[in-house]
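@channel sequence for tomorrow's demo:
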Amino acid sequence: MGKNLIFDVLEHKEIKELPWVPFAGVHAGKLKGYTAKEILTDEDKLVESLLEVDKLYSPDGMPIVFDLQIEAEILGCDLLWAEDNPPSVSSHPYASEKIVPCSCKIPTKEDGRIPTILSAMERVKKEIGDDTALYGLICGPLTLASHLRGSEFFMDMIMDQEYVKNLVEFCAEVAMKMSQYYIDAGMDVIAVVDPLVSQVSPTHFEEMLSDSFTAVFDYIRNAGAYSSFFVCGNATVQLDVMCKTNPDSISVDENVDLVEAKKVTDKYNITVGGNIPLTTTMLHGNQQDNMKYVVDLIDSIENKKNLIIAPGCDMPYDVPIENTIAVTQAVKQTDDVRKMVENYTSSAEDVDVELPDYDNLEKPLIEVFTLDAETCAACTYMLKSALEAEKEYGDNVEVVEYKYTILEDIARTKKMGVQKLPSIYINGELKWSSIIPSRDELFKEVEKVM
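structure tokens (generated this afternoon):
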């Protein structure tokens, strides 16, 4: 059974085949013709879609909901809903005042969308829980804190570290309570999803965040479940400090070299999962592209112990169904698929793009290269940081976002030589790569070229 395979790999046993975990969040809705909002608010549609994921993609493990805004919505954040993406946070209740909520503000089982999610978990557990390991995904303490405080939070990390620690500690209490709700509803693995970890330095992580994350993972283990530390963006330099928080596994996206990441996680005997590219391969590639990528990924890793194959993050809504089925085949029938694609060369068409004449711009041009600010929390706050310049300088600056979900923007990202997402360039020069600048830092760089 796939469930036992997941358990074995999380218990660091030798395994005969690799486990497959499709992070089919809102993509699950596509399988039954439902929008993202429908499956994130309608229990019956969510359950129907999840059972279709299990039927089509033969997962060993799978998430119930991939939405990092559930807790934030209950705690006072307004959400902006989309048809084909999870909602994004559009307001921050503590943006104008440093507040640390009291424990009475921790969400209960009756708050917000929690009852819908818990009921869906229980129903899916009953249907497929004997064979498939079920993941409950919660918003990590750092990302939840930034949802509550907004872009000011990144200045706080420099100017008021005590406040940051206190707010993150509260968010860790929320994470532990949500973990318990999900474990009680039958979840086998609790994934603490925190995209913003890749945006802070290892030093800041250890000084302000490490204790809270460790407390969450210890809580999950003591409650009888497995844990995963799920981070987006280029978290390469953070991997060591992440491992020290003692999760059972770590999940990374395509910004991280999985071969090198596994060398770090192996030192701590922690399982690593990843990291099929979401857009270039799963969304815009064909079946052979997906098969070849997975086979090459598997073949690149010598020691298969402590390894889970999965998409780099939440799968885009419009990923072709046949592409995900191709990934399933490549994981489950690797030897056969290897023969099928041994002579295959991708015929992906390059899109021609023209870069600006950076030496002759009329005003500062701030280019934000993201995965997609509507779906990636780290990208959201990187873009919001850049947009602070528009608020300050008005028409005297221009801010543009390029999304790695659009073919033309992918081509532009490659032509610019962007190595990490998200990143900010000013007048064609890289200024911040996977680190969100404070408002003062941004204004200083803009004024240099005004």
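heads up for whoever presents: The chain has a mean pLDDT of 94.
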